[in-house]
Amino acid sequence: METQNKLLSAASGSLEYLFNLNQNDNTLILTDSYSLPIANAFKLAAAEKGGRVELYEIKNSDRPLNEIPTKLEDLLAGKSIVLNIIKAFPEEISFRIKWIFKVEENKKIKMGHMPGITEDMMLRSVNVDFFTMKSTADLLISELKGAELLHITTGAGTDLMLGDKNRIFTGDIGVIAGEMCNLPCGEIYCAPVETKASGVVVFDASIGDIGLLKQSLKVFLHKGRITKFECEDEKLANMVEQLSSVDEEARVIGELGIGVNPGARITGNMLEDEKALGTAHIAFGNNADFPGGGNNHSQIHRDFLFYAPTIEVSFADGTKKFLIRNGEFCS
After folding, report:
1. Mind listing the domains of the chain with CATH numbers?
2. Which stretches of 20-172 are DSSP H helices?
3. What does the alpha-carbon distance between residue 79 and residue 82 come to, in Å, rounded to a whole number?
4. Which of 35, 127, 275, 299 could, after both became Cys, cross-link 10 (CB 3.0–4.6 A)?
5. Contact (Cβ atoms closer than 8 angstroms) between residue 259 and residue 278
6. Distance between terminal CA atoms of the chain?
């Protein structure tokens, strides 16, 4: 009972701060048997605020999904909030991208996307001080206005030049109609210029749908495209190579993100990992729905996380400044 009450409290707080849910809202919750306790907490929290709620549970026998079920799509009519509370099957990345785009066609819907969320995440990284976290995110975003080039290095060997001209950083702490945020939330991110990333990144934390890394993975880029993977774990290198060969744009840079959630922990679940303080992540693949711009239309979007970045920002007038040193914010 105590855990249920804590889940309800976390759900209620996030719906109030991030979605501004009220009695006029009509919410659809997409869930499955693995995530049902969390889905029920959100259902009860929404109902307590006076909103109407419908729940659609994916049958285990239908997994993995490739296409959007007709009945699920029909339930979108009249909804103002959609919450995706499901287990993160790697084989369903294509379905999740299709579903996100379908929901975003309706510019009146606010979406909360949480594939792979757990009860532990709800208690430590959803149950947080959203106001303070957003203040940190907003400060970093303001420091990045007008950025044209980012130089990213780490003690592990990362040395990457990344183009950001005319691309806008945004945060995920709060959502407006027609857009989406993750839960747990707590990052700032952008869609880098797809042809302006060259160098090497050493990923030493985790990879989406793969989990925690026992061996670092080196990814070499030239003009925004992956040219080579290197890793002492040949099985891992081969796996990532295969996963990155879905289509031509799967090997093209799609995102740079920086974590700002003080409650987030590195567990191997990217939904939470990418929000952790002292980390940054780069994704390859789709970014076409990013509010700050993006031209990558791959079928997939996979995040790769690394520790303790140093990020130096260059501006059009030739000035430079450090945003982060060894994972610590400079502002």
Report:
1. 2-126 (3.40.1830.10), 130-329 (no CATH)
2. 36-48, 70-74, 93-104, 119-121, 130-143
3. 7
4. 127
5. yes
6. 42
Residue recorded with tokens 């029909």? 74
CA dist., res. 8 & res. 226, Å (int): 43
CA pair distance 110, 127, nearest whole angstrom? 20
Burial of 242 (0-12, 13-18, 19+ CB in 10 A): exposed
Residue with tokens 């400060």: 139
Rounded to two decimals, the pTM is 0.89
Distance CA 146, CA 114 (A): 31
| Token pair for 139 | 């400060």
Residue matched to tokens 């029920």: 40
* Residues 112, 185: Cα–Cα separation, whole Å: 9
